[in-house]
Every structure is written in C-alpha cells, then in structure tokens.
Amino acid sequence: MKINQDTVLRGKKVTLVPYTAAHVPRYHEWMQSEELQRLTASEPLSLEQEYEMQRSWRDDADKCTFIVLDSELWPGQEEENSMVGDVNLFLTNTEDPTVGEIEIMIAGVRKLGITKFEAKIGQENEASICMFKKLHFKEVAVNSIFQEVTLRLDVSDQERQWLLEQTKHVEEKSYAELKQPAGVQDS
Questions:
Q1: Is the pLDDT of residue 33 over 60?
Q2: Reduced 3-state DSSP string for 74-106
Q3: How does pLDDT run across 42-70, given as a tens digit for each residue?
Q4: HEC-encoded secondary structure of 16-60
Q5: How far apart are the C-alpha atoms of 82 and 67, rounded to whole Å?
C-alpha cells in the first residue's frame, strides 16, 4: 500500500518497516514451513510468485503490509537478518470502511480511519487466539466451514487510551531516512 511505503513504526522490541522486494527471500524461506502454511492458511508459492505477491501488495489500495524487525538488531544488521514476522492490514469491508482486518495488533494506523480491527485465526491456533485476547480482542464469530475464529477489537475512546499507553514508546519515522547506506533496494 502506498500510504505505508515510507513509514517505520519503531518500538522498544520491534520495528515495523514496509514490505519490500529485499524481504522476499527470507519471507519465502519462512513460508516453506508446512506448519506456518497451516497456521496462516497459506499455499506454498515459488520465489517468483512471492516477488509478484510483494509487488501486488505494495501497489494494492486495500492491503497494508509491514515486516517486523527485532529492534535490538536493526538498524545495525541487515534487515533480512533482523526479520521476525509480518503484519497485514486488509481494508476490504465495503459496507463499513472503518473496519480493518488485521493479523497483528499495531498502533499508528489512525491515518487510515480504522476504528475496528478483525482477526481471522484458525481454530487450532490457540497461541494467536490468546495473544489477540490479551490485546482486548473479543470473539465475534466462528466459521466451522473454514475452521476459523473471528476476533474483533472496537477502538472506543477507552481502548484508544489503553492502546496509546501500551504503545507510547513507539515512534513513527521515515523508512528512507532510517535505511542503512547499503540498505534495502525496493523494486
């Protein structure tokens, strides 16, 4: 998504950076894991398909993707060696544009006008379900056909204050300014 192409969200433990072509090889390596494929309901892709997916997501107006870096390692080490995950935000609810489906809770998305987050998680992925519940998400639906649970967080003023308190150490910075001189080449 163009809106986050130069956005870095830096916290004490993790830093969120835009998903670029330089991240694809490591991401592709992760996604060869059958367990990760099962937990994320993903199909295996070739490396070229993964590059195409990254380009598509970068240009898509209804997806916002960040790579999660270990803040103790980056900046300093190469981004690919600091990668610990990803965060995806899907803006696909045409009936309610204030809803964003999210895979990991993040702060700093007020520019998008999002006030509700939904996470769809495989029923057997108890670790993810517990993590979202700790972040105040509530179960709102169970889909037995897809074997997934939908959790939702409505960001009321009270929830916003709680989130701001939990993330007050997070700084939003320019990705271009933080990249190392031999840094990530985007394509």
A1: yes
A2: CCCCCHHHHEEEEEEEECCCCCCCCEEEECCCC
A3: 889 999 999 999 999 888 888 889 998 88
A4: EEECCHHHHHHHHHHCCCHHHHHHHCCCCCCHHHHHHHHHHHHHC
A5: 10
